[in-house]
Amino acid sequence: xxxxxxxxxxLLGWEVLVWATGVPSYILPPPSRxxxxxxxxxxxxxxxxxxTATEMIFGLLLGLILxxxxxxxxxxxxxxxxxxxxLVIVSQAIPVIAIAPLLVLWLGxxxxxxxxxxxxxxxxxxxxxxxxxLRRTNEGWLDLARTMDASPRAVLxxxxxxxxxxxxxxxxxxxxxxxxxxxxxxxxxxxxxGLGYLMTVSLARGQTPLAFAALVVLxxxxxxxxxxxxxxxxxxxxxxxxxx
Amino acid sequence: xxxxxxxxxxxxxxxxxxxxxxxxxxxxxxEFPAGRTTCLLxxxxxxxxxxxxxxxxxxPDAPRSPSVAYMAQSDLLLPWLSVLDNVLLGYRxxxxxxxxxxxxxxxxxxxxxxxLADRVDDRPDxxxxxxxxxAALARTLCEDRPVVLMDEPFAHLDxxxxxxxxxxxxxxxxxxxxxxxxxxxxxxxxxxxQIRVLSGxxxxxxxxxxxTGTVPRDPADPNLLGLHARLVAExxxxxx
Lengths: 244, 240
Hints:
Chain A is mainly α.
């Protein structure tokens, strides 16, 4: 309840500020105007949101699959870990924004470049969370498995992996929170559809209220993706609250 | 059941056991007789658990001991598996489907005997501490190994359940070479064919005490009460 009151207070303050200073709407539109645009242009906003949501969801899935697979490979094989793990860490030093134009150049203005962009942003938190979880298996469980003559493969698949799923779930939550960044950066750099594209186009045309409306929808989309991921993680990994 | 006639004795020869930096025992030579239950008694921190882990082949320089069932102090139930699947964990990990299918009946029977017949499909987090301990006991006995190593298997249980499970364990451990760590002299007297007291740093092992009669012994037996006084004195370091 309290955050809601704070938010309404801030919006009221914003409205009053615009009204008192007489700032033009193409510089700073009042919330009431943004709301009106949200309603008026809802068809357009929903269409663009569907496009961006698709990019985010495919990016999230791709990032989760690739990141998960790589973390499992690192946990299973010391060779791969030694050869490739430092590279994965160094790759994070490259700002994603810097690669965005290249991805658009290689993969085109369509959806593929944005999906890959989102997957790139997501990839690292997923690898590091799952790999960390795979390394921190309860020693007691490993001892028990050893006395039961379990093969390394059985230990990995039946003990270390399920034990690391809560860590993977936290990685997935972070991934869901940053997935919109990847998709929107991709759209800014070069696209023909999506909320990020709509924002750049409306700003260029002086339709600032529409850009704000797109931003609001983007926020809602990010929240929805985060809570959907959180819900899925709770349902699929019900033992996470218990830890080790 | 097939291994029982072949239960081997456990031999420790000139072993050096260390727990991290701390030397727990050196030049340790000890034999646990075949097909018998030996209880290890000693005060906290003397090194009972280290000795048990060494026997299980879990310490770095320990020899790999073949075919043991090991029960640690904590229940180590996997939170994502049902109680039944936890009891069958060894068979699942070894990946032998035939053996797994064959062991299920045994697992259910054991869970019935430890009083968890109606909880087989529950996840461990729905169980109380005592129930978890009982599930872990069922898992250990389900392994059907000739050598069984147990670290305080009856801690965290109420008095009546403890007596019942001591009876059950004594029955199911018959014919196996078992080593059981405990804090409780009376428990050792009830279920151990042989009792060894550990004391000192690094620890030394006192000569075996072998109470008469078959296990599980009646806790009201006056002979046991006499031995109990002797064991307590030995644990306190008062005996010669």
